[in-house]
Amino acid sequence: MIRNRAALAASPAHEVALDCIEAAVDAAAPAVATRSAIKRDGATLTIGEATYDLDSYSDVVVVGGGKATGGVTRALESILGDAISDGHIVVKQAVDTDTVRSSVGDHPLPSDRNVEATTDILDAVDDADEDTLVLFVLTGGASALLSAPAGELTLDDLQTTTDRLLSGGVPIGEINAVRKHLSDLKGGQIARRAAPATVAGLLLSDVVGNDLSTIGSGPSVPDETTYEDALAVFDRYDLTPPPAVRKHLEAGRDGEIPETPFPDDPAFDRVTNLLVGDNATALEAAADVAREAGYEPLVLTSRLRGEAREVAKPLVAIAEEATAAGTPVQPPAVLLAGGETTVTVTGDGGQGGPNQEFVLSGALTHDGDAVIAAVDTDGEDGSSDVAGAVADTSVVDDRERARDALLANDAGSYLSEAGATIETGPTGTNVNDVAVIVVPDPDT
Description:
This is Hydroxypyruvate reductase. The protein is built from 16 helices and 15 strands. The protein is α/β, with parallel strands linked by helices.
């Protein structure tokens, strides 16, 4: 999986860090997670605890989007076979499917081809009736890949808004509160459009805490945010939306545009949603690998969030405490954490992403021999083409230049020159970030 693994495996501790990362990504593979959650016995389809009689439906349609949606869809095709009558998904990387059509879209900013494919998906959902079972697949990246500008908004409005929110360090939940109110699909609206069809949402989580309404901006999930909440995001982070976006949100706040459906909306009477996989699944697999290698694993959290460079500091402090005092875990040990950190861009034209900033900040801060690694499980850290990085303190032999790179949001350039970036290519899954800190035995 890690294409440049041989170059990165500088020590046994580096090897363990890389093993943990590969195990984490493998465990989150969408096909594996889907087959664990969905079974078929003749005409009976079981999704989690819900069962569906396939003979009761004239059509079974698979629609959705996201970076891992191709893997989920291929697994569904292998389970359901010719019971699937039609479907269309939007993915970032091309995928071979049988019955379900797939379109390649763009991420993290939406594009014309995203809108075109989403329009076709909405047409299929609009055509569904009470004899239709809609399997709605949603995975990380869907907020951009499934794009349907609301009202008189344009694609450029969505692109500009998304770019400003992402570069402004806004947490994903608040970004999605805005996205829901600029879309004809998000915030429960796929459920509204599909009614009276039966809808089963299959969700692979890329958000901290697994809030179903935040994953992919919750097209099949009730929305408790409002137009007023969306406007407040721009004020809170001192960001300016495009004029058309502000006009649209203000019209919604003033009651001129219907709100997204709340939990008591009858649109959800025939809708169920199942969480197929999440970050905790990845961390558990990494912990198993660490244990097998003779290291004591400690999963600190699957809810990591905040500025990447700041989040790294308390984690490396825990590694130092383990070395010095044997608490909260006795070395040799592996500290594990997952979640979604952010980067507030202040530099100009730098390279990297939150996981690379995490690693460089950790290496600059750390006073010890730990190996620090962090990746985005989708294989693309931020807007970069690497998954993340792995390093110990030796990577910051020029501390002044390393600090300057971090301040300029150019951690990627520095770590790449040092040969510390992790290259996987797109992994086909997306369950947030995974951070691994390997703490060697101080007596060896």
